[in-house]
Amino acid sequence: MTQSHPTSGPVADPACPVSLDLLGEVYRAEAEDLPELLATIAEPTRSKLAVYLYGKSHMHQLGLTVARACEREDLVRVAGEIGSVVYGQSRMKPARAPVQTEAAAPARKISLAGGPPKKISLGGSAAKGRSFD
């Protein structure tokens, strides 16, 4: 079978400010190793990378992590008001999971039927004596 297009591997997104290899390194880096890796990226490029990642739904959190390594002025310079938003969100503390108390415990099921379930026939009088199970 002849292919109608070449399959030369992954193609870098032209909007991405870093090489595909460096993007992969940032994506795969452990949390404790990421600051050291980000320090090797020049500041304007790092800010562009933060905004780029922030704009990708599957890399939103990573974008905020990269933005923590950036100055507000640099983020604003590369992305305007969005840079300011990214900077602010990157400095917010993550929300804690709510502690479940007795008052917030799941409610018991309530039934308004008042008794055991009744059998209902969908076959009318002709259905008497037949089993539909």
Automatic annotation (TrEMBL):
Top-level lineage group: Bacteria
Chain spans, region Disordered: 108-133
The protein's name: Uncharacterized protein
